[in-house]
Amino acid sequence: MRIDGKGRVDRTRPVTYSFDGVTRTGLAGDTLASALMAEGELLLGRSFKYHRPRGVLTAGSEEPNALVTVRTGAQADPNTRATVQELYEGLTAVSQNRWPSLDFDLLAVNNLAAPFLGAGFYYKTFMWPKAFWEKLYEPMIRRAAGLGALSGAHDPDRYERAFAFCDVLVIGGGPAGLMAAWAAAKTGADVILCCEEPEPGGRLLSEDEQIEGRPALDWVQETVALLATRDNVRIMTRTTVTGAFDQGTYGALERVAGHLPEADGLPLECFWRIAARRAVLAAGALERHVAFRDNDRPGVMMAGAMRAYLHRWGVVPGQSVAVFGNNDDAHRTARDMAHAGVDVVALIDSRHDAENRAGDVPFYPGWQVARAHGGKALEAITLRAPNGRHEKLAVQGLGVSGGWNPSVHLTCHTGARPVWRDDIAAFVPRDGAVPGLSVAGAARGTFDTSGCLRDGAEAGLEAAQALGFSGALPHLPQADASPYRLRRLWAVAGKGRAWLDFQNDVTVKDVKQAAAENYVSVEHMKRYTTQGMATDQGKSSNVAALAILADATGRDIPETGTTTFRPPYSPVAIAALGAGAQGMGFAPQRFTTSHKASVAMGAPMIEAGLWYRPSYFPRKGETHWRHSCDREVTMVREAVGICDVSTLGKIDLQGRDVGAFLDFVYTNTFSTLKPGRVRYGLMLREDGHVMDDGTTARLSDKHWVMTTTTAAAGEVMRHLDWVKQAFCREMDVRFISVTEQWAQFAVAGPNSRALLNGLLDSPVDDESFPFMQCGPVTVGGVEARLFRISFSGEYAYELAVPARYGASLFDLLVARAEGMGGGAYGMEALNVLRIEKGHITHSEIHGRVTAFDIGFARMVSGKKDCIGKALAARPGLNEDREELVGLRPVSAGHLIAGGHLFGEGAEPVSANDQGYVTSVGYSPAMGCDLGLGFLRNGRARHGEKLRLVDHLRGVDIVVQVTDPVAFDPEGGRLRG
Amino acid sequence: MVELNALSACDGLLPVEHGRLTLREETLGAITSLAPFKGQGKALSAALQAAHGVGFPAPNRMEVSGDVACVWTGRDQAFLLGPQPDAGLGAMAAVTDQSDAWAVVLLSGEGAEDVLARLVPVDLRPAAFPLHAAVRTELGHMAVSIMRIEAGLRIMAFRSMAATLVHELSDAMAAVEARRRLS
Questions:
Q1: What are the domain boundaries of chain B?
Q2: A147, A346, A755, A882: least CB-packed within 10 angstroms?
Q3: Taking residues A537-564, what's their average pLDDT?
Q4: Does the pLDDT of residue A661 top 90, yes or no?
Q5: What fold, for B30-97?
Q6: A734 → closest Cβ in B6, B35, B142
Q7: Any B CB within 8 A of A160 CB
């Protein structure tokens, strides 16, 4: 119900929303939880395991119970905490984990089966038969026990990632955080203040307190206004700092559009990475429950949350309430509720010597609440007097406080453990837990407002001073300085189930049972009972659970220790972490200059690393890729073909020592190469295996250009950098990638020279431009480079022009080629052409082969050293190896890459494996499939027949071993 | 004689505008990488100064004189932006034409830094990244060179990635504008 004159909601602005299909009205400024409470709706969800009715427990992001699914369809967002979800016009929310309805949930029978469903139930019950787990038990349990469901549809919402930088990051917008930000900002330091709520103020928003003799919120507003005028301060609201990482990096989740009816281009959430030179943690504290029988009835909530609902939203859980605590702070709830006109039936304080600080309310010092009554809503509580007498009181709400736990989470994210403080019965951060992070206010156990203000000011100033800024401590306003007194109480003794972890349905008995079954380590207890493993990470139950474990195992709390706090502090959507990486956003796309023309010609584009390359160029009447491929191969062999080879890596090398450098990088000698000439080279990794191959041209005395494969362009560039810096520092060599500078096209086939001579400003002939020649040419006045090299085995050239002319040159080359009975060819044809010639690609040099394996042992020069040479000579790398061979089918059926080779009579099992197939293609020239592969001692086995088997694809054929070079083995065609 | 037509790297992609933010392609003239040969650093800087009025830039800086700029792009490496390089530089440095290798775009307007804060893990606010500051970093998954000039923030990315570059920037510009509408 709503209380007149209370709360910070706007009573002039009603907001329409729906919950479980019922249209309702709240007020601007409400959360979903407060709006429902205003209408007397306390039942918000069903528990995970037993499907017990549950209501709101807290007023913040630590909420374990009130999880709902907001929005609908593909935009549905499950497990949203109703306590955090701000109300907006048209908000749609539904409850979760109930069937058929929240009010009547059939799976509540689990609750009756509770004696069988205790700690370790799954481990004990579903052990056998083994096969049942995956097929039966797990799906069944998942359906019965659960949270909200994903829509299964593609998430249409926008998410964002961003970076921010500051001198001092202040985490938390309460009194300590505001003072820290102000103290640091005054020194001139660059400050970011992150606050989880829609507005700064922290705990002050939820209390009735005075600062400097005026309402505390006046001071908050003035301070925020002061901060906002400074250009060295950035206030980030609705932003939860979720993790502390190395070197001053913090993760933070900003809720951007989740409180708005229309996103209008905004992301739902933004995940920030904040690099802070120093940070002040002022994240406050979280209140903890006391375990007693049926303490989970809707209407039982944290005492501090009850005050928050009253002061922030003007709502209370009912007309009559009681308050139960073990500390002075709980008395505030009784006092404030009474002031607001709510009937406070009892203030129960477990301390027999407690004084009533709540004014004129029935006071029960030394008493405890032994039981809550009711089903879907709290109806009454049973009190137990010090002498054991019981008394039952009718109530609609019960505020409970077992004390406060400082929010130490972030201080533990890099491995530190918190320290136990007996006087407040809580863990506090260890000093220096995270380098550069200090802690202020309630987060380090300072609970009074006056202390928080002082703490914050000191921490903020100290952080700025550590960075070299100077300033004085700001004026410390007068504020409440009441001491925080408590006597520990974790659980009230008695029969029945007393709940600790509401989200995972863990009771006091479960923890004791874990201890009895020897799960005495806190980490084991956690996993055995699942306490603290839900989405709230046990924020309101961890300390009580380990205190009970400590008691059950006869140890003290510090000795028992805590479980590990890990990021994120509160749930972060994967969509936010991976923002921008959906679909094609996953990686950049690299397009060649001929891309548009290729697409216009109907070529299906295939990915080659980040590049897109044409697979084939279909022509009219061609209904299968093989038609196009066969035609393109024949075209190259008989006329002329054009292929964009710009994706190959190109590295420009200059300097006096390039020759010597290349001799060290390549297995063969390059220093003897004459200007104007090109040589094929092989490169090894340090471990002696083949890294890459390609041609390098010597353009002039000191100027060279290396080509790499498309796949290894980046790797080779990095390799050269490393070799230069690590081993060749004294050499005069400089290099830079020119892959992007040049658009390069293969012009291959018997008509290639004729085609080129129709384009080049001065024609070339075989005498001036023999095989493996290179040199400058001009095309339409544009300076270009011509290379007489061939991957296809045909008489061929590669022509390179500055990339701006690439599209134009490609169009021209293709038009000319088509006029000569040729045309463009794609990757499929390129592959067939090179297989016919036995040329290797990274299908063959896949990282596990040596120069010996591919038959290039003689390319490792004996006259000089090179990278990889020593390790290539290791025993085992030069004898009894799987060697490169060619393969042809003998029986019917097609060759298949990935298939394995076996002796003709041998059973196709691993023990009989003789090798494998790496590349296959249909050769129109040879009229059959051709393959390349690796076969044990294969070079000595040409002519042998073998069995090619692919179990996965059901292939089993007979093949013959051949030389890898099937077409024009003498190479007469490419020399012309 | 045949005729080859030149296309710029961002042909058909730019300009793009979102509210107060604009993204357009820049035409810089020549882009030439300069990497001094062994022991030639000072000589190169002097020769550059004499020929083009700019010295060899310190790391993370660019030297500017009129329409000529020389921007640091890596260890012992800088790009001369604008003029055709003086032929004499080749004696002191590896001189490599990079004019066609880069998509060069200019992001300008209020909030340009906020746009890049969504893509680039470097503090580019004016206090940390003042006029003529330069950095080699990543934008999304792309290696880029970013520099601040009077007109805004200049970004250079691989030519082949121009489409992704424009897409990423345009998306971030729209998001920043959406936030401005909110406030």
A1: 16-27+100-182, 30-97
A2: A147
A3: 92
A4: yes
A5: Alpha-Beta Plaits (3.30.70)
A6: B35
A7: yes
Q: In order of start, what are the domains of chain A with their CATH numbers?
A: 1-151 (3.10.20.440), 159-285+406-466 (3.50.50.60), 288-402+485-560 (3.50.50.60), 624-646+741-834 (3.30.1360.120), 650-737 (3.30.70.1400), 880-976 (2.40.30.110)
Share of chain B above pLDDT 90, in %: 98
Q: Which residues of A touch B101 (CB under 8 A)?
A: 737-741, 803
- ipTM of the modeled complex: 0.98
Arithmetic mean of pLDDT, A677-681 = 98
When pLDDT is averaged across residues B75-83 and rounded to a whole number, the result is: 97
pLDDT for residue A111: 75
Three-class SS string for chain B? CCCCCCCCCCCCCCCEEECCEEEEECCCCEEEEEEECCCCHHHHHHHHHHHHCCCCCCCCEEEEECCEEEEEEECCEEEEEECCCCHHHHHCEEEEECCCCEEEEEEECCCHHHHHCCCCCCCCCCCCCCCCEEEEEEECCEEEEEEEECCEEEEEEEHHHHHHHHHHHHHHHHHHHHHHHHC
pLDDT tens for A281-318 read 999 999 999 999 999 999 999 999 999 999 999 999 99
Contacts of A807 in chain B (CB under 8 A): 5, 7
Residue B121 sits at the chain A interface (C-beta within 8 Å): yes
Which residues of A fall within a CB distance of 8 Å from B179?
256, 266
Buried/exposed A635-649: b ≥16 CB within 10 Å, e otherwise: bbbbbbbbbbbbbbb
Give per-residue pLDDT as tens, A387-446: 999 999 999 999 999 999 999 999 999 999 999 999 999 999 999 999 999 999 999 999
Chain B: give the shortest CA distance to residue A271, in Å: 10
